[in-house]
Amino acid sequence: MLPLFTxxxxxxxxxxxxxRQSPMVVYGGALGVVGGLEGWEITEGKCxxxxxxxxxxxxSGYPLTNKTFPAREAxxxxxxxxxxxxGVFAYDILRYILPDxxxxxxxxxxxxxxxxxxxxxVETTSARNLVFTSSxxxxxxxxxxxxxxxxxxVIIYQWQDAKQVPVxxxxxxxxxxxxxIFPDWPGPWNK
Length: 191
Description:
There is one protein chain. By secondary structure, the protein is an alpha/beta fold. It folds into two domains: 4-55 and 155-190, Rossmann fold (3-Layer(aba) Sandwich), CATH 3.40.50; 68-149, Response regulator (Rossmann fold, 3-Layer(aba) Sandwich), CATH 3.40.50.2300. The longest helix has 21 residues, at 85-105. Helix 5 (85-105) packs across helix 6 (110-117). The strands form three sheets. A four-stranded mixed sheet has the order 2-4-7-8. The protein has a two-stranded parallel sheet with strand order 1-3. Strand 7 (156-160) and strand 8 form a beta hairpin. It contains seven helices and eight strands, in the order E-H-E-E-H-E-H-H-H-H-E-E-E-E-H. The chain starts with a strand and ends in a 16-residue tail after the last helix. The mean pLDDT is 86. The radius of gyration is 19 Å and the shape is elongated.
């Protein structure tokens, strides 16, 4: 089931799914707060087995790149909280992307920096190789089978024992030593 809930409805849906032991798996690209770090507490642990896309590795604590965990720890030390999505974007832009472009442009002139940004290929907290497309969007990766193409990914996490565990892309799941877990109640996965 792919619910598209964002607010209280997502919390109610996930709790009911768990309580009824519905014979399906739940993946929500938009499960609102259930997909956030507070999801376990808000659902009283009833988000177990639910999968959600979109948490940044810096927020979830998954060390996707060499920059992810040190940046996360520095943020927590400085602000005594886990960074939010906008904070991660801002951090990557100001700490890695823009300084890299300015250094390669060897100038602060706007046109020179823009030209350098168009040729960006840099490791950030969220991508092993952040690259922009010709239309200036972030290049999205489909999988990690080719290390040269480790572009920005949407990672899918599954709630398992009060933790968000990466379960897709497959290579990320394998790197994390994780497995996708089906609910422990009867369903089509038992056949």
